[in-house]
Amino acid sequence: MLKTLAAMACGAALALTATAPAMAQKAVRVGLLQPMSGGYATYGRETQAAVEFLVKTINDGGGIKSMGGAKLELILADTASQSGQATREAVRLITQENVDVILGALLTNDMLAVTQAIEDNRMPTISFFAGGTKTKYAYSVGFAYDDGYASSLADFVKFLKDTTKIPVQKIALAYANYEGGQQINKYLKQRFEKMGFEIVAEVALDVKGQDFMPALLKIKAADPDAVVGLMLNTQIIRLQQSRYQLKYYKPIFVSTLAQSDARLKRDLGDDVGNAVLPEGVFGMALYSPSAKLPSVQKLADLLLNEGKLGDHFGQLTIPAAQAVRVLQRALEIAGTTDREKLTDAIGKVTFPADSHELYFPLPEGLAFGDDRLIRNLRSMFAQWSEGPDTQPVVVYPQSVAAGKPHQ
Q1: 385: which of 90, 148, 272, 328 is 20 to 30 A away, CA to CA?
Q2: What are the residues whose beta carbons fall under 8 Å from the beta carbon of 370, sequence distance 6 or more?
Q3: Can you give the pTM of this predicted structure?
């Protein structure tokens, strides 16, 4: 009898031993809500390749250590750049694909659209770009509307006014006419007025528009020194094309990440790009080969050389890469895909300033605030250089700059 019990116990132990690795190796199902088609497709295409390569790197490196080497499994869903589709795909990922967490290039309007599904299902979510979240289960590595986008843009314009010979006093606010653009415009107006600038025009840019000549003519009539605001990739292209047609080069243009992306010149073409980009075009920047940020340069080398991302690498890649590292760290902290525990772990993620996995210029390191956005996130700024080989060069802040602003 004792031998039988011992044999049974031994057999049970062997069974547990055999099944434990399999349980530990259970994949973490990561739903990717991406605009792979439609008007925002640039955001999806530029981030998707980086996410796929970094996830492969994590898996090849042993997976999630605290979960016994669990691998990350990506399940892609196309939002088609439509908020309604984003909601439907979020519900499908959660209820049919049984994902454990959601990532994606969710702009603010899409983030707001999927909030109810996230809240109802307590689904931990990380957006690459959203300027705000409305549920405790959603975080973003994007810039906050005010203490992020607006502060970065306004402080940079003030820097130009105070430290350069570029004349800046009259401001035309030009912004993408959706939730994020509207909110940032509101905060920019408040900041500029407090700084003593004169707002001479506010121009809302249709997010589905193709002809931006009327918008540029409205700007021209106001005669500003600077045109400032959040603009989407296609809007920047169309405005600069219209600028070329009018030969209108007086004001400087200061906008968000797409305006400093090296591929902007390719999208404009050499003739247009070489003519307009050196004429006072500045953009927020998270990446530049010229910037003195070793961790970002190492990431760029990895994605360009080993990942072969090529045209799929640019400014928008950096937030996506940071989000993947945040998820990796959160899973290591949580040691589980339990939704409440994983959500709590995301909020606890930190990276010291010297971490090789910190890709943002954060002198005090990365940490999330109570609003579930990164604290004190500010942007570098790049200006397009002069000459036939025009390219974006970081000019602000001075601690990482490779050049000085030119008129």
Answers
A1: 148
A2: none
A3: 0.85
* Amino acid letter, residue 389: D
What type of residue sits at position 269?
G
CA distance 161 to 141: 30
Q: Per-residue confidence of the chain (407 residues) as pLDDT tens digits?
A: 434 434 444 444 434 443 344 445 589 999 999 999 998 888 898 899 999 999 999 999 999 999 999 999 999 999 999 999 999 999 999 999 999 999 999 988 889 999 999 999 999 999 999 988 999 999 999 999 999 999 999 999 999 999 999 999 999 999 999 888 999 999 999 999 999 999 999 999 998 889 999 999 999 999 999 999 999 989 999 999 999 999 999 999 999 988 998 889 989 999 999 999 999 999 999 887 767 788 888 888 888 888 777 777 788 899 999 999 999 999 999 999 999 999 999 999 999 999 999 999 898 999 999 999 999 999 999 999 887 788 899 999 988 888 999 87
Nearest alpha-carbon partner for 201 in 351, 214, 209 = 214
Round to whole Å and give the CA distance between 221 and 385: 27
- Decide: 379 and 286 in contact? Cβ < 8 Å: yes
Q: Phi and psi (nearest 5°) for 253?
A: -115, 125
